[in-house]
Amino acid sequence: MMAVFNGWSIKLRYDLNLFMPFDFPIRKIIHVDMDAFYASVEQLDNPELKGKPVAVGGGAKRGVVAAASYEARKFGVRSAMSGVLASKLCPDLVFVKPRFDRYKEISLQIRSIFFDYTDKVEPLSLDEAYLDVTSNKKGNPSATLIAREIRDRIFREVRLTASAGISINKFIAKVASDINKPNGQKTINPEDVLSFLEALDIRKFYGVGKVTAEKMYHQGIFTGKDLKDKTPEFLEEHFGKSGVHYYEVVRGIHRSEVKSHRTPKSLGAERTFSENLSSEVFMKDRLEHIAEELARRVAKAGTSARTVTLKIKYSDFTLQTRSRTLPYYISAKDLILDTAIDLLYQQPLENSVRLLGISLSNLNGKDASPTEEKSVSVQLRFEL
User: Where is the active site (predicted)?
Assistant: First the structure.
C-alpha cells in the first residue's frame, strides 16, 4: 500500500516487533557539529599553534581542559580533564586561555549560514546545532546535499571544519555526526535506521549514562539489538518511566522537534580558583561575585527561578551539589546569594575547595506542555 505525505511516496507497513503501526513525525534533520571548536579557533587565530597539541583551559597546574585539539586527543587529552593529568599524557601540550567572546562571534557567523537554509535552527551550544530542512529555503529535496553545502560554506567563509549527521530525527542525526569526524558527514537513510540502531552501542542512546549502562549490562543489554529484544514490561520494571523511551527510541521513534527558540532548563555561573580555599569567609566573597554574574544572566534571559543549586568541587576533584527549592521565584542577586550561602553552611566542608558554582533551575515561564505533533504510520521511503 502506498501513501503520499509532504510530496514523498511512502510504503505503509506494520512493524512486527510492535504489533502496531510506526507512529512518528517524518522529518529531514541535520546535526552540525564543529570540529574541536574552541581549539580550532585558537589555531585559526594563531598560525603558530597549527599542527600542535592545544588545550583550551586554565593551565597545566590549576586548570581544567575545556577543549582539546585533535592533535592533543591522540594522546588521550579530553575536555573536563585536569590540566595536571593532561600535561602528563601530553608533555608538549600548549595551554591557551579561553576567549568566549571570540567563540561566540564565530558561532554567530556560522549560525547565519544555517539561517540561509532554514529558520528551524536549534543551537545546542556555540559549536553545534540541529537544522530541520524538511522544507527549506533552497527548495533542495536532499538533506545530504544541503549538509555538504553548509559544511563547504563554513570552511570557505569561516575557515573552520564541521561534521554533520543526517537522518529522520534528532537522535539519529546527532549520533551520525560523530561517525566520520573530523570534517565528514554521515547519512542514515530511513531504510537503514532499524539496522543502524540494532548495531549501536547502548551507551550511544539518549538517556543512557554510566549508571544506566551498568544496569543494562547486568541485564545482558549491550547493543540496540539487545535492547530491542526486551518487552515494554521488562524495560518499565527495570528502568521505570524511561523504559517507554528506550522501547521507542531503539525503533527509530524520537518525536522531539527542532525548536528554534529553546528555553533553557537552567542558568549558572561558576569559578575555578588559582588557590584552594579552606575558609567559608573567603568562599562567601567568591560567591558574591558568582551570584552577581548569575543575576545578570537571569536578567538577560528575562526569567526567574525557584531552585538554587550550589556546586562545590574539592581539591581532590570530588564534586558535591546542594540544592534548595523555594516557595517563590527569585532573580535578584541578594536572594540568590543568601540561598547559596545557606547551602554553603548546610553541612561541614569535606576538604579545601577549588571551584564554586551556583545554578538556577525550575525556571519561571518554562512551557512544560508537550508539543502537539501530527504523525502517520509509515515505513519511510524518501531520499535524505
Answer: 128
Tell me how long the chain is: 384
Whether residue 4 lies inside any domain: the answer is no
State which residues form the domain around 206. 194-249
User: What pLDDT is attached to residue 383?
Assistant: 58
Cα separations in angstroms, 302 against 42, 231, 260, 267:
32, 44, 17, 11
Query: Reading across the β-sheet that carries 128-132, which strands appear in turn?
Result: 121-125, 128-132, 29-34, 162-167, 185-187
Catalytic residues: 128
Weakly modelled stretches of the chain, pLDDT under 70: 1-25, 60, 62, 261-263, 365-383
DSSP lists the bridge partners of residue 64 as: 82
Amino acid (one-letter) located at 268 = G
Query: Can you tell me the distance from the alpha carbon of 140 to that of 146, in angstroms, rounded to the nearest whole number?
Result: 7
Which grid cell is 181? Answer: 569526524
Query: Is residue 13 in a domain?
Result: no
Let me know if 360 is exposed, middle or buried by CB neighbors in 10 A (0-12, 13-18, 19+). Answer: buried
User: Does residue 133 sit in the same domain as residue 29?
Assistant: yes
Residue 243 zone, left/alpha/beta (φ > 0; ψ -120 to 50; rest): alpha
Binding positions for Mg(2+) = 33, 127
What are the contacts of 192-199 at 24+ separation with CB within 8 A? 193/167, 193/168, 193/252, 193/380, 194/251, 194/252, 196/172, 197/172, 197/224, 197/228, 197/249, 197/250, 197/251, 197/252, 198/223, 198/224, 198/225, 198/228, 198/250, 199/223, 199/224, 199/225
Alpha-carbon separation of residue 183 from 43, 112, 160, 163 (angstroms): 16, 20, 9, 5
Domain shared by 127 and 60, yes or no: no
181-186, long-range: CB < 8 A, 24+ apart: 181/33, 181/35, 182/35, 182/36, 182/70, 183/35, 183/151, 185/144, 185/147, 185/148, 185/151
Q: Does residue 175 fall inside a structural domain?
A: yes
In DSSP terms, 225 is beta-bridged to none
Residue 245 and residue 338 in one domain: no
Please tell me the total count of domains within the chain.
4
Give pLDDT, residue 292: 93
